[in-house]
Amino acid sequence: MTPERILDAAEEVLRRYGPAKTTVVDVARFLEVSHGTIYRHFASKAALRDAVAERWLHRVSLPLAEIAAEQGAAAERLHRWLRQLMVLKRQKVLDDPELFATYSAIAEEAREVVQAHIGELVTQLTQIIESGISTQAFKVTDAHQAAKAVFSATARFHHPAHALEWRDPNIDADFAQVWQLLLVGLVVGETFKQ
User: What does pTM read for this prediction?
Assistant: First the structure.
């Protein structure tokens, strides 16, 4: 029994029963093992749920990390990174809204995991903005503060609290306007201060 197999089973059980009704015993029953087997890999129900949330969020951050690590024009990469984040989140809502609701509920409980995920995404944005600063495409002086501002400014397009808005037929046009505003700020080079 591997942690990955347990996580696969936990995802399936969560899909079937939802977070409120899913227990470690349910996951063990699904795998046809004792609940002690699960506890050998995950110390508690909360640890198992955190691992499920972390795995889910990693599926979002991994393709974004690839964009952040690429070479090329920072503005183009930043735009593609933000679009990809928006598309990944939107797909999860539109393709399987019940599963998205389940994962969102789990993520609400896994605050440390979510904060680590946000930190990872802001680090990726920082990497892109730093490359723009190094080529003088961006004039901001603090890449990390600019990254945090970009992430916050685009929350409507990727934060689960706004999921109902993602069906709006104008969402892409709204994103295009926000993107233009952000790009002007990065190119003009206001100093971001805490």
Answer: 0.86
